Amino acid sequence: MTFEFKYRPRRLRKTSAVLSLLQETRLLPSDLILPIFIHEGIEVEEVDSMPGVFRWPLNRLAEQVAVWHASGLRAFALFPKISPKNKDPEGSQILNPDSLVYKASRILKETALDFVLIADLALDPYTSHGQDGIIGKDGDVDNDLTVEILAKASVLCAREGFHWVAPSDMMDGRVGVIRKVLDQESFHYTSILAYSAKFCSAYYGPFRNAIGSSVNKLRIDKSTYQLNPSNCREAKRELILDDSEGADILMIKPAEPYLDIIQWAKQQFTVPIAAYQVSGEYSRICAAGKLGWLDQDACAMESLLSIKRAGADLILTYFADRIAHSLGK
Ligand code: PBG
Prior knowledge:
- By secondary structure, the chain is of the alpha/beta class.
- The chain has a domain at 27-250: Aldolase class I (TIM Barrel), CATH 3.20.20.
- Helices cover 36% and strands 16% of the residues.
- Helix 4 (143-159) links the parallel strand 5 (116-121) and strand 6.
- The protein is globular, with a radius of gyration of 20 Å.
- The site of ligand PBG has 11 residues, from helix 6.
């Protein structure tokens, strides 16, 4: 039996050639930013909570980044794991030009390869308590004291070879202050990739293990500065504020649970929109893959396509190194 249907959308899905011609969203290696963990040791270490993700020692970094660069990746964000004995309540190593992350940026500058090097600007890799700022008298993270340190650190980052600084702290007013201080120091071309709508998410768990900031427990409460996952209007407000303070790129994080916010931001702003597919989004796909419950590679691709389709111009993802070679140029 055959009906005379006027519309048969399946006509346009008949062959892989047709599918390819009509594909609306495509991932490119240049859409992706690879987060890189570095550590003070001399071995390559796998992160327990993130199979397939490693902490790189400085002696292997330049060579490895050249490999990633050759696969088409053009942006890297560095995340240091420093030894607990170098952490203190003030996170003072963030202002030490000889601490790990600045040694790494100097090494990478010497490669003279053309890529964007991004500094995640926050105190949590450096503080003994694992919070993203200085704890004030009332027991909560002190906003302005923290902003002052981040602004100083942004200048150090620019001086030591980072092209973009990415404040991931969610303190009020920091984008404006960082822009002002960078300009005062003549770093007019250091860009700010602002973690603008950063939610207070349980999906950061594996990352905190990776940088050793979880202080032996998975839960660390950041709810007085990161966004409530239920709040859409508040997320929009944060994005509007960072845009008005001069952020060059606005970021939403995590990515897949917040596609509604990504889509709104894309329509609302003319600056580029970034999204961070965070550690927990990565690890859940890998864990189910290991159990044989999901096809890891197919799910990785589908999740990244959904993030781009929602409106992300750039995606930070731990899958970047493994999928770059399979994407077009
Ligand atoms: C630090 C920072 C975090 C992440 C990126 N920068 C953790 C946090 O806010 O606790 C999470 C990234 C990830 O989970 O992959 N401020």
